[in-house]
Amino acid sequence: MVLPSPAFVRGIARAGNVETSSAGMIxxxxxxxxxxxxxxTLERWITPNDRFYVRNHFAVPNLDPRAWRLRVEGAVRQAxxxxxEDLRRLPSRTVTVTLECAGxxxxxxxxxxxxxxxxxxxxxxxEWTGVPLAAxxxxxxxxxxxxxxxxxxxxxxxxxNEPTLGTIPFARSLPLAKARSPEVLLACRMNGAxxxxxxxFPLRAVVPGWYxxxxxKWLTRVVVTDRPFAGFWQTLDYTVVERxxxxxxxxxxxxxxxxxxxARPRAGEAVPPNAxxxxxxxxxxxxxxxxxxxxSTDGARTWTAARLLGEPVRFxxxxxxxxxxxxxxxGRVRLAVRATDxxxxxxxxxxxxxxxxxxxxxxxxxxxxxx
Length: 371
Ligand SMILES: Nc1nc2c(c(=O)[nH]1)N[C@H]1C(S)=C(S)[C@@H](COP(=O)(O)O)O[C@H]1N2
Ligand SMILES: [Mo]
Hints:
The protein is mainly beta. Helix content is 8%, strand content 36%. It has four helices and 23 strands. The protein has a five-stranded mixed β-sheet. Strands 5, 6, 9, 10 and 11 form a five-stranded antiparallel β-sheet that branches. A five-stranded mixed β-sheet has the order 16-23-22-18-19. β1 and β2 (34-36) form a beta hairpin. Mean pLDDT is 95; it is low at 1-16. Molybdenum atom binds at residues 55, 101-103, 212-213. The site of molybdenum atom has 6 residues, from loops.
C-alpha cells in the first residue's frame, strides 16, 4: 500500500493561504472569476447561493431575459425557440444536486498539474428548480438517428492552449439516454431564488451525478446531433485516458467519482489533547448513493465507520461526523476519510495517472497537530 507523500499533505495547508472575496469566497482567479467555497466553513447541507463555488472559463455574458430565447434544433422534427415565459408554463421539478468541478482538489497534487488550482471547495450543494430537458426534447421531437444533445452557453472566448482556434463558445454534450433522464433539468431557480448571474442566469443545465462541466450555464442553444459530438470541452479538454485493449484512449469526463472530504479539522489545525473532537465533512458520488464513510486517525492504515447525518438523497452530498478521542501526547496526526457508495465503489488510496489533471478522488490525509 502506497500512502500519499508528505508533500501531498503539505499541499492542503498551502490551499489555505489565499485571497478571499467580500462574501468570504477563496479567489482562485479574478478574470474570468473563479471562486472556491471555503470548505472548512461547511455547516449546512445546502450551500447558500453566495457561497456556491463559481467556475467560469470566459467572461460572464449579460443576457437580457426579455430578448433571450432557447433555440432547440438539429435532429429534431420541429425546431423551437422558447422564451423564459414559455418555459415557466411547462411543469417544473425541484432537485437537490451536488456539483463538483472535475478539477476540485487539484492544488493538492504533487507534482503540480495545469488548470485552476482548486483546494477542497470546488464542490457545493443546492436545490435547483426547472423544466426537465426531456420535456423540451419531447416537444421538439427527436428524429431517428439522434445520438447526442449538445448544450451551448452564451459565453465565448479564446480556446485554452489553442491560439489558432480563435473564439469558441462553451458547449458540452450528453448522450441521449442521460439527456432524457428525468433528473436532468433546465434550471431557472437556485435555492428558491432566481438563478444568480454567476450561476447561469437566465437558464442553465443541471446534470445530476455528472461533474459540473456538463451543467452548462447561460444556455442559449440545444443541438441534437446524429453523430457523437466531439466538441472542444470533451476532446481537447475535460478528458481522461482509459485503456481499450491496452491502448490509451481519451474519453470525456462524465460521472462524478465517489469522494469524501474533511471540513474540520483543517489541515495544520491545532487540536487539544485528551479531548473529544468532532471530525466533520461531506461525501458524494455519481449515479448512486453514499453507503459508508470511514475515518482513519493513523494515516490510512485502519478505518472506523463515521456517522452519516440526515437522510440519503440521490445526487446530493451526505454530511457525516466522527467523534474523535484525541491522543494524550503532543504530536502530529494524519486524519483521512474514505467513502463507499451503494455500488460498492470505494475511494482508491493511489491516484490513477490516466486521469491527467481531473477526477481527483483518491484518499488524501490531512495532518493536524495535537497540542
Ligand atoms: N456556459 C458555461 N457553462 C459552464 C461553465 C462555463 O465556463 N461556461 N463551466 C462549467 C464547469 S467546468 C463547472 S464545474 C460548472 C460550475 O458551475 P457553477 O459556476 O455554478 O458552480 O459550470 C459548468 N458550466
Ligand atoms: Mo469544472
